[in-house]
Amino acid sequence: MTDLAPIYRDELAKPGVKVLHVADLDFRSQCPTFRHCLTLMKQWSDATPNHSPVFVLLEPKLSGLDKAIPGATQIPPFDKAAFDEVDDSIRSILGRDKLFTPDDLRGDLPTLEAAALAKRWPTLGQARGKFLFLFLVPGMNLKAFAPYLDGRPSLQGRAAFVQGQAGMAHTAFMLFDNALTRGAEIGDAVRKGYLVRTRADIDTVDARDGSGKRRDAALASGAQIISTDYLTAPNVYANDYHLAPFAQGWRCNRLVYRCSSAR
Protein backbone atom coordinates (compact mmCIF):
# COMPACT_ATOMS: atom_id res chain seq x y z
CA MET A 1 0.00 0.00 0.00
CA THR A 2 1.34 3.40 -0.98
CA ASP A 3 -1.53 5.78 -0.16
CA LEU A 4 -1.33 5.71 3.64
CA ALA A 5 -1.68 8.94 5.58
CA PRO A 6 1.53 10.34 7.06
CA ILE A 7 2.47 9.54 10.65
CA TYR A 8 3.30 13.13 11.75
CA ARG A 9 6.09 11.96 14.06
CA ASP A 10 7.06 15.48 15.14
CA GLU A 11 3.55 16.44 16.23
CA LEU A 12 2.96 13.13 17.99
CA ALA A 13 6.12 13.68 20.03
CA LYS A 14 4.80 16.95 21.46
CA PRO A 15 2.68 17.22 24.63
CA GLY A 16 -1.09 17.37 24.25
CA VAL A 17 -4.15 15.29 23.43
CA LYS A 18 -3.66 13.10 20.35
CA VAL A 19 -6.28 11.89 17.86
CA LEU A 20 -6.25 8.24 16.81
CA HIS A 21 -8.42 5.15 16.74
CA VAL A 22 -6.35 2.41 18.38
CA ALA A 23 -2.83 2.91 19.71
CA ASP A 24 -0.22 0.80 17.90
CA LEU A 25 -2.79 -0.44 15.38
CA ASP A 26 -4.88 2.35 13.85
CA PHE A 27 -3.08 5.59 14.55
CA ARG A 28 -2.96 7.41 11.21
CA SER A 29 -5.22 10.44 11.42
CA GLN A 30 -5.72 13.40 9.13
CA CYS A 31 -4.97 15.58 12.13
CA PRO A 32 -2.74 13.91 14.72
CA THR A 33 -3.45 16.27 17.60
CA PHE A 34 -6.72 17.61 18.95
CA ARG A 35 -5.59 21.19 18.53
CA HIS A 36 -4.65 20.46 14.90
CA CYS A 37 -8.16 19.09 14.26
CA LEU A 38 -9.78 22.10 15.89
CA THR A 39 -7.65 24.44 13.78
CA LEU A 40 -8.84 22.72 10.60
CA MET A 41 -12.46 23.00 11.76
CA LYS A 42 -12.01 26.69 12.56
CA GLN A 43 -10.53 27.36 9.12
CA TRP A 44 -13.41 25.53 7.41
CA SER A 45 -16.03 27.27 9.53
CA ASP A 46 -14.58 30.71 8.83
CA ALA A 47 -14.60 29.92 5.11
CA THR A 48 -18.18 28.56 5.27
CA PRO A 49 -20.21 31.15 7.16
CA ASN A 50 -23.73 30.22 8.22
CA HIS A 51 -23.00 26.49 7.92
CA SER A 52 -25.30 23.91 9.47
CA PRO A 53 -24.46 23.00 13.08
CA VAL A 54 -21.64 20.47 13.32
CA PHE A 55 -21.77 17.64 15.85
CA VAL A 56 -18.30 16.50 16.94
CA LEU A 57 -18.16 13.13 18.71
CA LEU A 58 -15.32 12.70 21.19
CA GLU A 59 -14.29 9.31 22.60
CA PRO A 60 -11.54 9.30 25.22
CA LYS A 61 -9.43 6.16 25.03
CA LEU A 62 -9.46 4.49 28.41
CA SER A 63 -7.38 1.41 27.55
CA GLY A 64 -5.00 0.04 24.92
CA LEU A 65 -3.67 -3.32 23.79
CA ASP A 66 -0.96 -3.64 26.45
CA LYS A 67 -2.89 -6.21 28.50
CA ALA A 68 -3.23 -8.49 25.48
CA ILE A 69 -0.03 -7.80 23.55
CA PRO A 70 3.34 -7.63 25.35
CA GLY A 71 5.16 -4.41 24.56
CA ALA A 72 2.08 -2.56 23.34
CA THR A 73 1.68 1.08 24.29
CA GLN A 74 0.27 1.82 27.72
CA ILE A 75 -2.48 4.40 27.40
CA PRO A 76 -2.02 7.36 29.76
CA PRO A 77 -5.04 7.98 32.00
CA PHE A 78 -7.61 10.44 30.72
CA ASP A 79 -7.50 12.52 33.88
CA LYS A 80 -8.72 15.96 34.90
CA ALA A 81 -5.80 17.62 33.14
CA ALA A 82 -6.69 15.86 29.89
CA PHE A 83 -10.39 16.77 30.16
CA ASP A 84 -9.51 20.37 30.98
CA GLU A 85 -7.16 20.49 28.01
CA VAL A 86 -9.99 19.37 25.74
CA ASP A 87 -12.24 22.16 27.01
CA ASP A 88 -9.52 24.80 26.92
CA SER A 89 -8.51 23.83 23.38
CA ILE A 90 -12.09 23.97 22.11
CA ARG A 91 -12.65 27.44 23.55
CA SER A 92 -9.30 28.93 22.63
CA ILE A 93 -9.25 27.74 19.03
CA LEU A 94 -12.90 27.87 17.96
CA GLY A 95 -13.99 30.75 20.17
CA ARG A 96 -17.09 30.99 22.34
CA ASP A 97 -19.27 32.37 19.56
CA LYS A 98 -18.88 29.16 17.54
CA LEU A 99 -20.02 26.86 20.36
CA PHE A 100 -23.34 25.60 21.67
CA THR A 101 -22.58 24.33 25.16
CA PRO A 102 -24.44 22.65 28.02
CA ASP A 103 -24.81 26.07 29.68
CA ASP A 104 -26.52 27.39 26.55
CA LEU A 105 -29.08 24.60 26.70
CA ARG A 106 -29.66 24.61 30.46
CA GLY A 107 -30.19 28.33 30.88
CA ASP A 108 -31.99 28.93 34.18
CA LEU A 109 -33.31 25.39 34.64
CA PRO A 110 -31.96 23.29 37.53
CA THR A 111 -30.50 20.46 35.43
CA LEU A 112 -29.34 19.85 31.91
CA GLU A 113 -31.77 16.96 31.55
CA ALA A 114 -34.66 19.24 32.53
CA ALA A 115 -33.66 21.59 29.72
CA ALA A 116 -33.53 18.75 27.20
CA LEU A 117 -36.94 17.51 28.28
CA ALA A 118 -38.23 21.08 27.99
CA LYS A 119 -36.92 20.99 24.41
CA ARG A 120 -34.80 24.09 24.75
CA TRP A 121 -32.61 23.12 21.82
CA PRO A 122 -31.92 25.93 19.34
CA THR A 123 -33.59 26.16 15.97
CA LEU A 124 -31.56 25.45 12.85
CA GLY A 125 -31.23 29.18 12.26
CA GLN A 126 -30.02 29.81 15.81
CA ALA A 127 -27.47 26.98 15.59
CA ARG A 128 -25.94 27.92 12.24
CA GLY A 129 -22.21 28.46 12.36
CA LYS A 130 -21.88 26.54 15.64
CA PHE A 131 -20.28 23.32 16.87
CA LEU A 132 -21.65 20.91 19.49
CA PHE A 133 -19.10 18.64 21.15
CA LEU A 134 -20.39 15.34 22.49
CA PHE A 135 -18.46 12.87 24.64
CA LEU A 136 -19.18 9.19 24.07
CA VAL A 137 -18.83 7.13 27.26
CA PRO A 138 -17.20 3.76 26.44
CA GLY A 139 -19.14 1.01 28.19
CA MET A 140 -21.13 3.71 30.03
CA ASN A 141 -18.16 3.90 32.40
CA LEU A 142 -19.16 7.19 33.97
CA LYS A 143 -16.59 6.72 36.74
CA ALA A 144 -13.98 7.56 34.12
CA PHE A 145 -15.79 10.88 33.58
CA ALA A 146 -15.75 11.85 37.26
CA PRO A 147 -13.02 14.45 36.60
CA TYR A 148 -15.30 16.09 34.02
CA LEU A 149 -18.47 15.92 36.11
CA ASP A 150 -17.16 16.50 39.64
CA GLY A 151 -18.74 19.66 41.01
CA ARG A 152 -20.54 20.11 37.70
CA PRO A 153 -23.50 17.69 37.80
CA SER A 154 -25.14 19.44 34.85
CA LEU A 155 -21.83 20.14 33.10
CA GLN A 156 -21.75 23.73 34.33
CA GLY A 157 -18.97 25.58 32.58
CA ARG A 158 -18.02 22.63 30.40
CA ALA A 159 -17.60 22.82 26.63
CA ALA A 160 -18.99 19.38 25.75
CA PHE A 161 -22.06 17.30 26.44
CA VAL A 162 -21.63 13.79 27.91
CA GLN A 163 -23.59 10.70 26.96
CA GLY A 164 -26.00 9.68 29.69
CA GLN A 165 -29.18 7.84 30.57
CA ALA A 166 -32.63 8.99 31.62
CA GLY A 167 -32.73 10.30 35.16
CA MET A 168 -29.16 11.64 35.21
CA ALA A 169 -28.81 15.38 35.76
CA HIS A 170 -26.29 15.79 32.92
CA THR A 171 -28.23 13.79 30.33
CA ALA A 172 -29.21 15.66 27.19
CA PHE A 173 -27.39 13.32 24.79
CA MET A 174 -28.00 9.57 24.41
CA LEU A 175 -26.48 6.79 22.34
CA PHE A 176 -28.40 3.90 20.77
CA ASP A 177 -26.08 2.26 18.24
CA ASN A 178 -28.35 -0.29 16.58
CA ALA A 179 -31.59 1.10 15.18
CA LEU A 180 -32.60 -2.37 13.99
CA THR A 181 -33.16 -3.46 17.58
CA ARG A 182 -33.55 -0.13 19.38
CA GLY A 183 -35.64 1.91 16.98
CA ALA A 184 -38.52 2.27 19.43
CA GLU A 185 -36.16 3.47 22.18
CA ILE A 186 -34.64 6.01 19.82
CA GLY A 187 -38.02 7.38 18.81
CA ASP A 188 -39.17 7.62 22.41
CA ALA A 189 -36.02 9.48 23.46
CA VAL A 190 -36.20 11.92 20.55
CA ARG A 191 -39.86 12.70 21.21
CA LYS A 192 -39.03 13.45 24.83
CA GLY A 193 -36.35 15.95 23.81
CA TYR A 194 -33.05 14.10 24.03
CA LEU A 195 -30.37 14.39 21.37
CA VAL A 196 -29.70 10.87 20.03
CA ARG A 197 -26.89 9.36 18.01
CA THR A 198 -27.20 6.04 16.19
CA ARG A 199 -25.16 4.28 13.51
CA ALA A 200 -26.00 3.49 9.90
CA ASP A 201 -23.32 0.79 9.87
CA ILE A 202 -21.43 -1.05 12.58
CA ASP A 203 -17.83 -2.15 12.09
CA THR A 204 -17.73 -3.30 8.44
CA VAL A 205 -20.68 -5.71 8.49
CA ASP A 206 -23.22 -3.64 6.56
CA ALA A 207 -20.77 -2.50 3.91
CA ARG A 208 -19.40 -6.00 3.35
CA ASP A 209 -22.93 -7.36 2.98
CA GLY A 210 -24.07 -4.42 0.87
CA SER A 211 -27.10 -4.22 3.16
CA GLY A 212 -28.92 -0.98 3.83
CA LYS A 213 -31.29 -2.38 6.47
CA ARG A 214 -29.56 -0.83 9.46
CA ARG A 215 -29.03 2.44 7.58
CA ASP A 216 -32.70 2.65 6.64
CA ALA A 217 -33.75 1.83 10.20
CA ALA A 218 -31.45 4.60 11.46
CA LEU A 219 -32.95 7.11 9.04
CA ALA A 220 -36.48 6.11 10.05
CA SER A 221 -35.73 6.17 13.78
CA GLY A 222 -35.70 9.94 14.15
CA ALA A 223 -32.18 10.07 15.61
CA GLN A 224 -30.68 13.50 15.02
CA ILE A 225 -27.13 12.18 14.53
CA ILE A 226 -26.40 9.22 12.26
CA SER A 227 -22.81 8.03 11.92
CA THR A 228 -21.44 6.19 8.89
CA ASP A 229 -18.03 5.11 7.65
CA TYR A 230 -19.20 5.09 4.04
CA LEU A 231 -20.17 8.42 2.50
CA THR A 232 -19.77 7.51 -1.17
CA ALA A 233 -20.33 4.61 -3.55
CA PRO A 234 -18.84 2.33 -4.58
CA ASN A 235 -17.32 1.60 -1.20
CA VAL A 236 -14.06 -0.26 -0.54
CA TYR A 237 -15.96 -3.54 -0.85
CA ALA A 238 -17.04 -2.65 -4.40
CA ASN A 239 -20.77 -2.38 -3.74
CA ASP A 240 -23.17 0.55 -3.53
CA TYR A 241 -23.71 0.62 0.23
CA HIS A 242 -23.28 4.18 1.54
CA LEU A 243 -25.05 7.05 3.26
CA ALA A 244 -24.44 10.34 1.52
CA PRO A 245 -24.53 13.58 3.53
CA PHE A 246 -27.91 15.28 3.65
CA ALA A 247 -28.49 18.07 1.17
CA GLN A 248 -27.27 21.35 2.69
CA GLY A 249 -26.11 19.43 5.76
CA TRP A 250 -29.48 18.79 7.41
CA ARG A 251 -32.91 17.20 7.05
CA CYS A 252 -36.29 17.83 8.62
CA ASN A 253 -37.12 15.23 11.28
CA ARG A 254 -40.49 13.74 10.40
CA LEU A 255 -40.72 12.14 13.83
CA VAL A 256 -41.25 15.47 15.58
CA TYR A 257 -42.11 17.96 12.84
CA ARG A 258 -44.41 18.25 9.87
CA CYS A 259 -42.09 18.28 6.89
CA SER A 260 -43.28 19.35 3.45
CA SER A 261 -40.41 17.58 1.70
CA ALA A 262 -37.43 16.20 3.52
CA ARG A 263 -35.00 13.37 3.31
From TrEMBL:
Gene Ontology molecular-function annotations: phosphoric diester hydrolase activity
Region forming the signal peptide: none
Pfam families in UniProt: PI-PLC-C1
Membrane-spanning parts: none
UniProt GO BP: lipid metabolic process
InterPro entries in alphabetical order: PI-PLC-C1, PLC-like_Pdiesterase_TIM-brl
Name assigned to this protein: Uncharacterized protein
